[in-house]
Amino acid sequence: MNSDVARLPVVYDARSFYVATVGLGTFPGKQKTFMNYYLMIDTNSYQTWLQCEGSDKTFKQDMPLYPSKLSTTFRIVYCNTHPLCTGDRCTGDGVCIYEASYGGGSVTNGVIAEELFILGSDTGGFESIQLHMGFGLVQPNFERSWGNNHLYGKPDIIAGILGLGLGQWSFINQLGATGQGKFSYCLEAFNSKIEGSDTYLRFGADAIIGQVGQKYRELPLLCLSYFNAALLLKSRRYQVGKTRIRFPRGTFELKSQGTGGCVIDSGTPISIMYIGHFDKVANLVKAHFNGLGVEYVVKRLSYEVCFRLPGKFDTANFPSLTLHFEKSDYVISDYKESFVTLDFETVCLDIFPKDEDTWPFFSRSFATS
Fold first, then answer.
1. Weakest-pLDDT range from 116-120, 336-340, 359-363
2. What is the pLDDT of residues 258-289, one digit of tens each?
3. Is residue 334 a contact partner of residue 341, using CB atoms and an 8 Å limit?
4. d(CA 230, CA 43)
5. Which of 98, 104, 213, 234 sits most deeply, having the most CB atoms within 10 A of its CB?
6. What angle do CA 65, 164, 339 make, to 5 degrees?
7. Which stretches of 102-195 are assigned E, i.e. beta strand?
8. Rg of the Cα atoms in the chain
9. Contact between residue 203 and residue 182 where contact means Cβ atoms under 8 Å apart
């Protein structure tokens, strides 16, 4: 790759995922020699993959499954040719394989192969790298997340995942000197227009933060052996409006066992919090709306805390939510980032509780920062 600037255009999926447009392969005889696919941007995993032709179990996608046999640059990776392909990553035939698991029980299994990966550049042209990535052959249990937009008259564009986590297979690491180990994005708040985002996922020299007139804050990231794929932050406190929640000291600190902290996860469209912490946040949100005379309507769909708004409710009356991190605070002032509108009168807190305090707080709030 010759350029020191690399970027990928970003669009929306109808289920509120952010999706990168990528080019793959070499297909001689066609006007455009590569094929475009949409990969969900995931900062909490490192394995890049997409569904491949010949799969036994798939989720629905509008694009055809990737026709790897037709690409002249597709190469299966064998275990005697790559240092990361050892042990349980090898089949009896010596083929390098992968497996990745996600929330809700969804799993992908397949082979690791090298393929030409096409990115945009600052000149308006294209640059390419040889990327080691997964080509999925078995994808069970994705139905709750992907592949069902067509039931609501929406496109099913997602074909796989672009892994931006910290693992050795990460897309960032494979960019090498061009990527400089960094990426940036400044994404719009989600809306229903599939091409509604006029922005890029930027890498390397193109990932500039702090330009003239641009406000930004810096937070230290942590890399731990038991979360080698995740972008972790030291979280300290939580705040609803002007009221800080009195959690015991160290509640959100990272523990040696791998619990606590906060994970930035662009692949989670809804923030997830341990129920003991969630209840304290929810109670303050309820108190805020109760003070405004807004009716609490308990659970709607999968949302635990919902309200029925009066006809002329001023959106300025929504409470802000603040995450207090080491060295900086992150204020979520736009109500559309903290609440979801179910119909013309019902809104719900956009955080899901979880029963066990065995994982960090997963925040999707940074997805539009």
1. 359-363
2. 555 566 655 566 777 778 878 888 898 999 99
3. no
4. 7
5. 98
6. 90
7. 107-120, 126-138, 158-163, 183-184
8. 22
9. yes
Q: What is the pLDDT, as a whole number, of residue 368?
A: 44
Rounded CA-CA distance 44/227 in Å is: 9
Residues in the chain: 369
Return the SS3 of 58: coil
- 254/272 Cα distance (integer angstroms): 16
- List 340's β-bridge partners, or say none: 348
Q: Where are the alpha helices (DSSP H) in the chain?
A: 171-175, 275-291
Q: Which of 337, 189, 357, 201 is nearest to 271 (CA)?
A: 337
CA atoms within 13 A on the CB side of 216: 14
Query: Which residue bears the tokens 């160290």?
Result: 250
Q: Which of the two residues, 193 and 242, has the higher pLDDT score? A: 242
DSSP state of 102: -
Backbone φ and ψ of 219, nearest 5°: -125, 135
Q: What is the pLDDT of residue 134?
A: 96
What's phi and psi for 172, nearest 5 deg?
A: -60, -45
Contact (CB, 8 A) for 19 and 39: yes
On the CB side of 41, how many CA atoms lie within 13 Å of its CA? 28
Region 185-204 average pLDDT = 63
The whole-angstrom separation of Cα 163 and Cα 53 is: 21
Q: Which residue is associated with the tokens 């900086």?
A: 328
Encode pLDDT of 102-157 as tens digits: 877 899 999 999 999 998 766 667 888 899 999 999 999 998 778 888 888 888 99
